[in-house]
Amino acid sequence: RFGALQRAPAAALQAVLKRSGRLPTESLPVRGYDFAGGPDHGALLRSFRTTGFQATSFAQAVAEIHRMIAAKLEPLSEEERDRAGLNPWPRATSGCTIFLGFTSNLISSGVRETIRYLVQHNMVDVLVTTAGGVEEDLIKCLAPTYVGDFNLRGQDLRQRGINRIGNLLVPNDNYCKFEDWLTPILEKMVDEQDTQGVKWTPSKMIARLGKEINNPESVYYWAQKVGGGGDGRSGRPPGMNLGIDGKSITVLPSFPKPRLISPLLFPRQAVHLGRGDVLPAEPPAHVPSVVTLCIGVGS
């Protein structure tokens, strides 16, 4: 066996017998939670930092959220307070503006209730999502989405008038109810545009829909409610300043009065944790700090 080791290629010997160098300074020994000490949910979550794999990524995300909250609570400098006076939004400017980005399938799922809680309790400043992230919330106020199975065949479901989102099922009737609810509202919005000169931006449109749905289970009901009604005069509703791409207007093609002004995107910028197509752009000059937390993966 020793002779075989001597005959091994030098490169292999160098790799196998190479002495270990210094580990990165932030490296910690791997250790998971020991249930022998009894259940302690706080300690269990803290142990994720040294558990490894996705548990460690979860712990790093928690640490980043703690950093956001700490920055938000920091007092503003005199210069930042002066700039805050230029802020057209009704909410107070803080040391950190927290963006919450999510893909539409999370609203389709039960994560919607978590997002609704964050908005209801004023724990995020801006929501960034796609059109589906708005529509699915409103649709679920009109009719429920059901749990199905990933293995169900889409072709079979389609023949029965049922749509599948992963392992979630949405009857076609839900979308019919949504159109019946939405069309009269859009007609009123066009009339207000024609008679009152209202310019419908994304946040104004979504705030209006949140007000019209008038359902405390809705994310956008709370977004406009916490923001002072979102009527376009009190400013942009908190957690509602959506960066919507071209898909945002997909609810309008069958609209009988195609005179609705195309939504204007409000420019902003943010650091992204995660990836997807729920991405904001440039920030207003008065925003001292912007942080984004993106959840989910988009195309």
From TrEMBL:
Any GO MF annotation of the entry: deoxyhypusine synthase activity
Gene3D superfamilies xref list: Deoxyhypusine synthase
Pathway the protein contributes to? Protein modification; eIF5A hypusination
InterPro entries referenced in this protein's UniProt entry, alphabetically: Deoxyhypusine_synthase, Deoxyhypusine_synthase_sf, DHS-like_NAD/FAD-binding_dom
Gene Ontology terms: cellular component:
cytoplasm
In its keyword annotation, does this UniProt entry include Ribonucleoprotein? no
EC main group: transferase
Q: What is its EC number?
A: 2.5.1.46
Coiled coil region boundaries: none
Q: Which cofactor does it need?
A: NAD(+)
Keywords assigned: Hypusine biosynthesis, NAD
Role of this protein:
Catalyzes the NAD-dependent oxidative cleavage of spermidine and the subsequent transfer of the butylamine moiety of spermidine to the epsilon-amino group of a critical lysine residue of the eIF-5A precursor protein to form the intermediate deoxyhypusine residue. This is the first step of the post-translational modification of that lysine into an unusual amino acid residue named hypusine. Hypusination is unique to mature eIF-5A factor and is essential for its function.
Q: Which family does it belong to?
A: Belongs to the deoxyhypusine synthase family.
Q: What is the name listed in the Swiss-Prot or TrEMBL entry for this protein?
A: Deoxyhypusine synthase
Organism this protein belongs to: Apteryx owenii (Little spotted kiwi)
